Amino acid sequence: MAQGRGWEGAVLKLMRAKDYEFTVTDAEDVTPHYRRLRLTDGGLLAATGVHPTMWVRLWFDNAGKPHQRAYTLVDPDPATGAFALEFALHEGCAGDWARAAKPGDTIDATVQGTGFERPRPEPSHVFAIGDPASLPALNSLLAEFDTPATVWFEGNPDGLPFHTDPARHDLRPVPRRDAGAHLVERVRADLPALLGATPEPYVWIACDTATTRALSSYVRKELGVPKQRTHALGYWRAT
Description:
Elements (H helix, E strand, L loop, with lengths): L5 H9 L3 E14 L2 E7 L3 H5 L6 E8 L2 E8 L1 E4 L4 E7 L4 H8 L5 E6 L13 E6 L4 H10 L4 E6 L14 E6 L6 H16 L4 E5 L3 H14 L7 E3 L7
Parallel strand pairs: 8-9, 8-11, 9-10, 11-12
Antiparallel strand pairs: 1-2, 1-7, 2-6, 3-4, 3-7, 5-6
Helix pairs in contact: 5-6
């Protein structure tokens, strides 16, 4: 299945990535800009098992050229071989495919690179920074730790499928302004005092690539949070 996928597909094949075909079984518009698809896994979950924030690479046609994007599995069920994918509907081939997807449609997927390294010792407080694109991974992360969490969420949370617990999770919506700079300013204003009161913090960052890079540098270089107690991954590129 790697044929026709250019250098990305060739590199993944050399890294022993595994390929699967997913089939859409249901589609739901959660909001006008957020869509959930249910799919069968083509044998994926039985072969790989499940871990928090687990993601796969989907292959889309982009004007005749292959284009891969990573998406987090939502509610994976190895017993039935089914899961959901949730799409924040940006412009582009991935959003176009998700908007049009209907039961019976199929899409190729590759599994390579996903993983979850649990921080040790366990976090006493989780600090998470995300947006609609990383919401499925954020939900998975919050479900994994039975600890308090502070969540800065860039964008409008109305109608989105948060799995937060008001008793443990402090959700702080932040409007997207100035290409993410407003979010960086808000985190810089809030986080130092919170970290000072936390013996075992864990900082998780998943925004657009530039914002993620800026926040990761700030947390590690200026606030001194050790590498093993942070996780940062850019989920999309702002244009």
